[in-house]
Every structure is written in structure tokens, then in C-alpha cells.
Please model this.
Amino acid sequence: MNVCVIGTGYVGLVSGVCFSEIGNNVTCVDLDENKINNLRKGIVPIYEPGLEDLVIKNTKEGKLSFTTRLTEGMDNADVIIIAVGTPEKETGEADLQYVEAVAKSIGENLNGYKVIVTKSTVPVGTNRRVKELVAKYSGSGNFDVASNPEFLREGSAIHDTMNMERAIIGVESEKAGQVLSELHQPFNTTIMVTTIETAEMIKYASNAFLATKISFINEIATICEKFNADVTDVAKGMGLDGRIGSKFLNAGIGYGGSCFPKDTKALIQISGEVEHDFQLLKSVIEVNNKQQRVLLEKAKERFGNLSGKNIALLGLAFKPNTDDMRESASIVIADELVKQGAKVKGFDPIAKETARRVLPQQVEISEDMEKTLEGADIIMILTDWDEVKNLDLSTLAGKQKKPVIFDGRNCFSLDYAGQFGLEYHSIGRPSLV
Ligand code: UDX
Model:
């Protein structure tokens, strides 16, 4: 099949590459000339394991190409995928200006039947708007619109796409349903064909539910601390119930990233439009905002004043295997520590450049964990990178000045951490002092 993907951000690029990997001819379109030139040379603008190799391989095999010219991508396409950004407005509402601009351009250039798919996460009803715009600017009804939400996670996006657990296809015509089912067949997955509105809702409901699971376990963690219980065992015990499942029950410093924070706010906004007050989801966000500051609270309780303290932050990205810092708790934490007059150093194996742009200038950022740990009075673990999880705690115990550890990701078992006489505070587990 010939596929045109518009927008080479996370979702667009990964989907385009994976559709070419399963045997389609894919053209990725983006307005950013520099980005397109780099992609043609196999230079990928984001850090995502396995992505660059697949870009190079499929470009070489002639199944994947990049262009800034929309018509070059869409003229021969059977399927056009819209995967442009939907940033968050001040109100929490998704900003649809890029989706609408693309719909208009597709309309202006339509030259035969196409299935026009929205992959960007958009409010319920947006596909109707896309349909209106394409019809208006093409003066034709020779197309179908569809919603095909994406569930990939950053850091494992290629794996998640190639091994997708389900393909959700929201359509209003049988023909479009058939085309998109055929496109997804090689993924060997469960294909669910539904209405457009239902598909749009599945995406928001899924992300809101996962965010709820995280805030729920973080609340349980706070209570566990009061009763000297261990949240990791509580989560394990809960997870043994097949109805609950063990995934997304890791207590920590809250969720970040480009999806959960944005989509939860957008769903509250969408609910408000139909006069529903989504109280549960409001609490999920409130708990998450509090949770991002939990290590600051713990450090304040332990030390009172943090002014002049040498603090090492281990991990800055919102989760491992990505350089993405969007809505990362590390931003909230670094800002506050600098404000309090602490001397802050930050380590991240990948996100150094991104971190430099978003963290206060005073934070010394390094890709060398040893350097970051030098002279630390306090260590705060913010991202569970393998490098951090493999840290040999005996080396810290051997230091003249033993640092106090605040582990926001429960990277070490209490048995292991307890062997070295270190002061170790984690989330939802008894402190070792
Ligand atoms: C998420 C969804 O998983 C994905 O399906 C959707 O398409 C986009 O949003 P992503 O944001 O890439 O993906 O990362 P994810 O692995 O889901 O983690 C999100 C955040 O939740 C991270 O900050 C992570 O640290 C946190 N998290 C996750 C927890 O705190 N505890 C958990 O148990 C799981």
C-alpha cells in the first residue's frame, strides 16, 4: 500500500517507519526542511532505540522516503496519516491549528479516493472537522476520514508499534475499515473497528486510566509510609489479581512526558464541554502535582534548610531511554532546589542537551555519573536509568562524607540498600536510617 505520513514528530516518524518495515511504500512529509534533509541522510532528530537503524534500512530498500512537498507524498497515496502536533493551550484544550491546516492542504490537493487518518491525539469530534475541511477545500466527497490512535511509549516506541496489542480503527464507511484493517494485518494484532468518536475516546480513556493507576499507587505509597508497609510488595500483591494486573503500579515521583499530563487535562476540558465534571481525573492530576514534589518534602523534613547543600540529581528525563524532558519532575525539583540556594548537579546519560535548555542555568549537567556524585551531601534519584539502577552503593558507603539518598524510583531493594549503612529514603517503603 502507498502511505503518506504528515508530521515527523514522535508518532509520525515511528508509525511511518514501522509501516514501511511491514512492506508498505511510505512517504513522510514535514515542513521543516532541515529535519527532512537530515532524515534523508539517516539522521534522526529524537533519541529512540532502534529508530535510526530502521530509517536507514527502509530508506535503502526504497520503501521509505522524506519530502517537504505534500503533493509528492499524497498524490499516489492510498492512506494519508495526519500525525502533526496538538500542543496544549493555556486552558488545557488541545490546539488543533496544525491538524486543521493539514486538512485544508489535503483538501486543496486531493486527486482521487484516499483514506485520511488522524493519528494525532485529538478531542472527540475533531475528525468530523477534518472531514468538513477536506470536503470544503477539495469540493469532493471522494475520501473517507478515520481515527487510528497511537499507543506507543517513548523509549520502546518501535517495539510497541511492531508488537501492538491492538489496532483501534474508527471509521464511518466499510471501505475505509477494510483498507485500514488490511494495512494493519501484518502486525498480527487484534483489530477493533468502531465509530470515529469511540476510537477517539478509547485513546483518552486509556491514557487517563493509566495515569489514574499511577496516582492511585502513589497515594497508597504515602499511606504505606505511615504504617511502615512496603508499597512494592503491596503492588505485587495487588497485581496478582488478574483483574488489576501488575503493570503501571510502580510508585514514584509521578508521571511526566508528552501524553499523560496533556491528555488528562484535555479529557477534563472535553468533559466540561458536555457539562460533566470529571472529579476523579482532577484528583489524579492534583495527586501527581503533589507527587512530583515528594522528594523535596522528604528532604525538607530531614534537613530543614537545603541552602548550600550539594545535591546530585540522578536522571533528568521523564523516564529512561528517552531524552524527553517534557513535564519531567526533574524540572520542578531542580527549580525549587536552586531557589532554596542548594548547589545542584544533574546526571543524565542522554538528555544532557534537552536538560540544558529547560533547567536553571545554575544546574551543572553531566553525562558522567561519577562526576555528578562527587562531593554530594544528598542524592536524589529521579529517573530509573539502568546506569542508576546498577550504581554500586558500596562505593558511596566508602566515601568520607556519606550522602543521604532520596530514591524517587525505588531503584534498590531495601535488603541491598541496607547492607551499607547508608541513609536511604524511598517511596512508600520504610526509611533506612
Ligand atoms: C504513554 C502511554 O503509555 C502510551 O500508551 C501513550 O501513547 C503515550 O503516553 P509515555 O508517555 O511514552 O507513554 O510513557 P510511559 O511509559 O507510559 O510513562 C509515562 C510516565 O509515567 C513516566 O513519567 C513514568 O515514569 C511514569 N510511570 C509509569 C510511573 O510513575 N509508574 C508506572 O508504573 C508507570
Notes: The domain at 203-290 is CATH 1.10.1040.10 (N-(1-d-carboxylethyl)-l-norvaline Dehydrogenase; domain 2). The two ends are 62 Å apart (CA to CA).
